[in-house]
Amino acid sequence: MAEAQNSPTSGYATAGAPTGGLHHRRLDRGGRRVDRRHPYERAPSFDVADFPVPHGREEEWRFTPLERLRGLHDGTATADGEGVKVTVEAPEGVTVETVGRDDARLGRAGTPVDRVAAQAYSAFEQASVVTVPKETVLTEPIRIAVHGEGGTAYAHQVIELGAFAEAVVVIDHTGDAVLAANVEYLLGDGAKLTVVSVQDWDDKAVHVGQHNTLVGRDASFKSVVVTFGGDVVRLHPRVVYAGPGGEAELFGLYFTDAGQHQEHRLLVDHNVPHCKSNVAYKGALQGDAAHAVWIGDVLIEAKAEGTDTYEMNRNLVLTDGARVDSVPNLEIETGEIVGAGHASATGRFDDEQLFYLMARGIAEQDARRLVVRGFFAELVQQIGVPDIEERLIGKIEEELEAAVA
């Protein structure tokens, strides 16, 4: 696949706390700074009334099939009590709580940046808070099962790690539901958190979510987002830093089938000095009207000296009729950085790889399976949870059976 390298351009700034919005600015002919923020970035808010109903012409909604969101975007979707069932399995020492809307821990990692996220925050009745105490190192993962039961739901989840705690969290979405949810990850200083979020919905499910992460001083965050199922899945991971030395790795794997819309919109806001980030998402598409969208925004603020960042998105189109929109954005406001770059590539099977394998006696269909399996292998290995890795490899095999048949 040909790789498109994009040169960084300046033009972002931020104001206020790390949970504030992303500001687009530029100079006018007189040298004055002119605000060019998107409407949803102009006023991040927990109040749904602060966001207009989207119509699809807005920058942040132009790729999303609003008519398939089942009313999540315009306020007509009403929670019916049969939306999702959430269960948490946690090792000893972990605290699992169900709290009300007035709990002080809610909203600390970030603020809703679009109408659906604000609707989710305004509409949930109780939130789940999972806390790993400081200096606790878990040897088994925390497992959160979100199972759709056919209805509509709004949800809020908080995962908090104390200073120098270490944990792996698996959030597994299955079944059928219309779900709007916010998830917060709060990492204390020196903490290490790996989150594996699996979207293995039934065919008719709709899932719109904002994931907010606040990375403490010298803390490490790794996210692995895996999306297979659902009619429409639209996820919005966002990362900000609470102190120097923080590291964030955001990995993603998606397999988009005929008629599915899978959209991943990321923002890493380097708002403090001497932090790192690495973003790598890969997707495969097959079937008529399969549509994958990847938007990767990395912002390096003027005060974020010593930043080291890279983002990459690659897509493999397996059949005619599939569409990919891939938009990497890198905005830099200081020249005092370690490194920054981004890349995007979309293409079909590599003929050279196929020829190499077939020349060694491997049948064409098997060769195609090997190419796709190798395409995803690096990201699957990032999961680090053997049973989840095995399950996802099995899902990939199922998809490939249809892709190369």
From TrEMBL:
Composition bias, kind Basic and acidic residues: at what positions?
Answer: 28-40
| Xref: Pfam families | SUFBD_core
Q: Which residues form the SUF system FeS cluster assembly SufBD core domain?
A: 148-375
Q: Which InterPro entries match?
A: Fe-S_cluster_assembly_SufBD (IPR055346), SUF_FeS_clus_asmbl_SufBD_core (IPR000825), SUF_FeS_clus_asmbl_SufBD_sf (IPR037284), SUF_FeS_clus_asmbl_SufD (IPR011542)
Highest taxon of source: Bacteria
Q: Where is the signal peptide?
A: none
**Which GO biological-process labels does this protein carry?**
iron-sulfur cluster assembly
- Which portions of the sequence form the region Disordered? 1-40
Biased-composition ranges for Polar residues?
1-12
- Give the protein family: Belongs to the iron-sulfur cluster assembly SufBD family.
Q: What protein is this chain from?
A: Fe-S cluster assembly protein SufD
